[in-house]
């Protein structure tokens, strides 16, 4: 690669503090993100996959500095974000936007679509009030929503349409990077297909880069050029999508793949015996050591 | 082939219709549904949000809100299913979200023992022994230390298993499972599905599985009913449905499933959205989105008809064409 990537993360760490609870029943510190390195070239998609609690959402929020990381460098468009003040970050915020899993929770139900999508333009002073309507309308066009949506509130829309509103709200700022945190997990299959097609089209048209956080490996294979697998806060495998699916190396990756149903439709009916790789529960991120422990979940890889 | 196609059906729905009053009039969520569940079989109802699959299950359990209008017959072994006590005993239900379905202020033992006291009169030491047996059946063996735990102290998978133990308390012949694994991680989901499958094999339990997750359905269902806008559009043995999907909706739905095992480019998504239940298109409800639509599609409601050489595979589309998805 000749160009430096759009986003480059090195040594990102986040520990959630220990809590002293009532009656001495406290909670130990949790290493949510440990020494994470990521690179996303412009116009490409990096999928961040892992089971619940593996630290993938925390990583996404740290990259945006919506959560303050404890350590690490975040270089976006050549500038180091890790040490910037929140005030200094503000002018960069339009360049990196986020969409979240639950479009029922991420949209303020009291605002109209025009207000929801236009608010960010006003906050960043990116449009005069005369332009605002046109910019919002253009964003709605881009995500395939009718213009008359502008005067309605989120309650009037279905899940897929709400997620389109959330995408329009991010797009209106003309970002370079979108952090997508499980953006289709709450949607029906046919709606998911529509939203994924929209994200692919927007990437082609605008050269957007995505950090796509998901547990759905089918979606990963459709969308991402590169996949990073997280397990207990660490990146355990980070490879080109095709290579990873062809020969998964780390036990966590194989566990994710193993929990998939076998491919349709050539599969014979299920035999009566167990036919799914059964794994012990994922390791707790509590009190993690520096090396991956040798447990039944992490058997030594077969010599090749 | 259902495991016991000669036995009379355990549960039969005849012309089941469920409608909800709305400002614009009665909106039917389930329309004229005929369906049979046989002993020991896993029958899956698949469809997208709002298609009526959960309303069907709730109608069977008589758990619909009071304003719902239900018509048609619900038969249990040929007799009308009437008594509420029968519903808790011969058939029981597990729900999608175990965190809200369990009572947060009751410990595991109290929750699981409640149906034992109500339906079987078991109390004290006998109840405790039975609770442990049920938890083992539900995939929580040696769970003595869980008996005093409260729902918030359990993981999602454990909660789902506690709910399953409650549902098994009266040794039901039919279990209704509404999205039992949707809220769970993939590896936990696989374990729960193994448990459900094992219950079918070991206890001869029939399961009516409500799910939008084709992967789950493909793993454990014997037969699959695909529902669109309140009607069954295709009903087939699992293998036939996944290898020879025939209704245009089924084919489109299977095609938009992201396949982690293939590099094939994704199929074009189905245009448009499922209809609002109050504004169902006339004729076949799928016709405005269907690639094979013809003039007659907006006039006549198609009925389920057996496929040539496959009497168990019925499809509600006169223009359907069998081929690989």
Describe the structure concisely for a colleague:
The complex is a heterodimer of chains A (304) and B (325). Helix content of chain A is 29%, strand content 20%. Chain A is α/β, with parallel strands linked by helices and 304 residues long.
Q: Give the class of chain B from helix and strand content and strand pairing.
A: alpha/beta
Strand content range of chain A: 15-25%
In the CATH hierarchy, what is the superfamily of the largest domain in chain B?
A: P-loop containing nucleotide triphosphate hydrolases
Helix content of chain A: 25-40%
CATH architecture descriptor text of the largest domain in chain B: 3-Layer(aba) Sandwich
Number of helical stretches of at least 4 residues of chain B: 10
The CATH topology assignment of one domain in chain A is Rossmann fold
How far apart are the termini of chain B? Answer: 22 Å
> Considering the protein shown, what is the CATH homologous superfamily of one domain in chain A?
P-loop containing nucleotide triphosphate hydrolases
User: Which pair of chains forms the biggest interface, and how many residues does each contribute?
Assistant: A-B, 49 and 47 residues
Number of helices of chain A: 9
Oligomer: heterodimer
Which runs of chain A of at least 5 residues are low in confidence (pLDDT < 50)? 262-279, 287-304
- The helix content of chain B is 25-40%
User: Using DSSP, what is the number of strands of chain A?
Assistant: 10
Major sheet characteristics of chain B? 8 strands, mixed
Instruction: Return the string of H and E elements of chain B.
Output: EEEHEEHEHHHHEHEHEEHHEE
CATH class designation of the largest domain in chain B? Alpha Beta
Give, in spatial order, the strands making up the sheet with the most strands of chain A.
6-7-8-3-9-10
CATH topology of the largest domain in chain B, what is it called? Rossmann fold
Radius of gyration of chain A: 21 Å
């Amino acid at each position: 690669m000749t160009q430096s990537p759009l986003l480059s993360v090195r040594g990102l760490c986040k520990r959630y503090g220990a809590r002293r609870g009532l009656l001495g029943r406290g909670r130990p510190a949790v290493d949510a993100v440990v020494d994470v390195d990521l690179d996303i070239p412009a116009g490409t998609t990096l999928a961040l996959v892992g089971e619940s609690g593996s630290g993938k959402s925390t990583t996404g929020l740290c990259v945006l500095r919506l959560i303050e990381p404890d350590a690490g460098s975040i270089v976006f468009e050549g500038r180091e974000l890790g040490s910037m003040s929140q005030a200094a970050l503000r002018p960069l915020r339009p360049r990196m936007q986020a969409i979240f899993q639950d479009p029922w929770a991420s949209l303020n139900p009291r605002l109209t679509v025009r207000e929801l999508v236009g608010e960010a333009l006003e906050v960043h002073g990116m449009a005069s009030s005369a332009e605002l309507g046109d910019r919002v309308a253009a964003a709605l066009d881009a995500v395939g929503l009718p213009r008359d949506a502008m005067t309605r509130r989120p309650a009037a829309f279905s899940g897929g349409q709400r997620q389109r509103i959330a995408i329009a709200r991010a797009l209106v700022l003309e970002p370079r990077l979108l952090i997508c945190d499980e953006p289709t997990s709450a949607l029906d299959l046919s709606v998911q297909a529509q939203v994924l097609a929209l994200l692919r089209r927007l990437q082609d048209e605008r050269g957007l880069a995505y950090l796509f956080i998901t547990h759905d490996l089918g979606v990963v294979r459709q969308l991402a050029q590169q996949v990073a697998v997280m397990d207990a806060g660490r990146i355990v495998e980070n490879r080109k999508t095709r290579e990873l699916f062809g020969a998964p190396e780390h036990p966590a990756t194989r566990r994710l793949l193993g929990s998939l149903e076998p491919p349709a439709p050539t599969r014979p009916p299920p035999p009566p015996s167990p036919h799914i790789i059964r794994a012990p529960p994922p390791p707790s991120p509590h009190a993690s050591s520096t090396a991956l422990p040798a447990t039944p979940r992490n058997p030594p890889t077969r010599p090749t | 082939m259902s495991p016991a196609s000669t036995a009379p059906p355990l549960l039969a729905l005849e012309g089941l219709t469920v409608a909800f009053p709305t400002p614009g009039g009665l909106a039917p969520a389930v329309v004229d549904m005929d369906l049979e569940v046989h002993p020991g079989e896993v029958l899956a109802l698949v469809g997208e949000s709002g298609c009526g699959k959960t309303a069907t299950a709730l109608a069977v359990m008589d758990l619909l809100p009071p304003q719902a209008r239900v018509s048609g017959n619900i038969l249990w072994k040929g007799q009308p299913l009437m008594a509420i006590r029968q519903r808790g005993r011969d058939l029981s239900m597990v729900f999608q979200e175990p965190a809200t379905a369990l009572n947060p202020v009751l410990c595991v033992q109290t929750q699981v023992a409640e149906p034992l006291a109500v339906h079987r009169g078991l109390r004290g030491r006998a109840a405790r022994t039975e609770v442990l047996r049920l938890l083992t059946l539900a995939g929580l063996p040696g769970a003595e230390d869980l008996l005093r735990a409260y729902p918030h102290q359990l993981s999602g998978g454990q909660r789902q298993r506690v709910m399953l133990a409650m549902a098994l308390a009266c040794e039901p012949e039919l279990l209704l499972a509404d999205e039992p694994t949707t809220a769970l991680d993939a590896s936990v989901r696989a374990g729960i599905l193994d448990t459900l499958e094992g219950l079918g094999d070991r206890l001869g339990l029939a399961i009516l599985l409500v799910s939008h997750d084709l992967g789950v359905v493909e793993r454990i269902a014997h037969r699959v009913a695909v529902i669109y806008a309140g009607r069954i559009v295709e009903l087939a043995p699992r293998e036939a449905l996944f290898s020879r999907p025939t209704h245009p909706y089924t084919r489109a739905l299977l095609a938009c499933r992201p396949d982690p095992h293939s590099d094939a480019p994704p199929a074009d998504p189905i245009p448009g959205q499922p209809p609002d239940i109050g504004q169902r298109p006339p004729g076949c409800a799928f016709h405005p989105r269907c690639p094979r639509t013809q003039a007659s599609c907006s006039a006549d409601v198609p009925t389920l008809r057996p496929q040539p050489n496959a009497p168990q595979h019925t499809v509600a589309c006169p223009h359907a064409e069998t081929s690989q998805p």
